[in-house]
Amino acid sequence: MFPSLRSGDFVIATRLYISISVNDIILVRHPEYGYIIKRVTQLCLEKGAWLVGDGQRSVSSEQMGWISLDLIDAKVIFSIKRKA
Amino acid sequence: MLHTITKKLVGKAKVATVSAHCDIPCKIYDPATAQIAALTVIRMVDLINELDAKESLSIKDQAQLIRLVNEKEAHGLKVKEEVRVIWGDYFKQPQFDQVPNTHELVHKIMLQASKAKQGVSRDDALGLLELVNEFAEAFWLTKGVATYKAIAPYLPSEAVVYPKLDAI
User: What number is the ipTM of this complex?
Assistant: First the structure.
């Protein structure tokens, strides 16, 4: 998620959210990639959410495909960054 | 500042760690590299023991011994690294369900590799290959690929588990 987030940063996330929007950073319990953090870039009622990492080397959306909204665990509301 | 305070506050509390998955999951996993590394450890032990049979070691022999020990050490580490990557990156709950003793087996490999690194016992090196073969069988089981055992066509001529793949 670099440059938005770096390894070791903390995030405060909530499971109580009204909606997920494009650009939100979310926590996902993915069956293949485990517990991951990603940014939402597209939303589709039937397909769910299309996610990307901010880093260039992040796993591509093509590899991950559409994520069912059921897999979303929480929405990030605040991040605490460590010193660069 | 805020990060330092949070880190202290969090302390030993259970805070979930999430991965941004910034490595590239290429999905190319194969225990063959660990098996070859285990074979190399055996071969290095054999060559070291050949030197040991000599009455005295020339400078050339001593230089050779250093090379052999270095290679044995490096390949012992390689076994650990290769197995750890497959266990840590490839194995997930469905694979653990298929092979319930994976954690125990991987831990045994870690210990056996250390043992093989520490000494020059052929039995210890063979024990490592046996465990790595067992791990290879487990890996191919999760891939739905049958396996067979055959003697590798090169020294140290030991039995290795191979995947039974169809020709294209």
Answer: 0.72
